[in-house]
Specification:
Length: 204
Amino acid sequence: MASALHFESTNSTVVKSIRQRDFLNTWLRLYARTQTIPRIDEFRPARIEEDLPDTVFFTVDATAQPPRLTIESDGTRMATAYGHSGKGRLLDDYLGARLAPVVMPVYHECVARRLPAYTIADIDDIYGHVVAYERLLLPFSDGGPVTHLIASLKTISENGSFEIRNLMRGNDVPPNFKLCAIVDRDLFHRAPGRIPLGDVLEFG
C-alpha cells in the first residue's frame, strides 16, 4: 500500500519524550558500532521495565509485501487505548479497516528504510480533549531483513487529564498527523559533554 504521508528527514532531537529519547539513543549506540541495525537481544535500555506499559513488541515478516507485523506483546496502555489486547494478532487486522490505512504506512516505512520512525498525531478522547499520541518505532535485524520492531507509545494532553479508554476507537475521526519523521541524520549517540570533533573522528 502506498503511503500518502510525507516523512521528514531528522535526527534524534525531534523526539519529545525523555524516555523515548533514551530508547532511541540506546538504539543509536548499537547502530553506530557497525552502521547497521542491531539485534533485538542487544537492546537493553536502562529501566526498561518502567516503560513496558507503553511498549509493544512485534515480529516482522519482511519477505511479504506489504510486510506482515505480528503483535508479540502489547503494553497495557495500548490495550486500553484500543479496547482490547492484540497479542498474537497481525497488526493490520488488530487496527481494523478504519485505522489500518492510516497507521500501517508508518510501520511499512520504518521496515523499508531500516531506520527509526517517529510520529505525533492528535486524537480526540471521548470527551473531546485533544491528546497527542507520540509513536517511536525502532527496527531490528539478525543481519538480513528487518525481523522485529519495538514501538514506544506515549500520550499527553495539554488539558492535563484525558480518557485513554478506547482512545483509538472512541470516535470516527482518524488520527491527525502533526509530524511524520524518519531519523536518518546524525546516526550516532552524542553523550552529554562530548566534544563534537570527537564524534566526527570516531563516527565520521
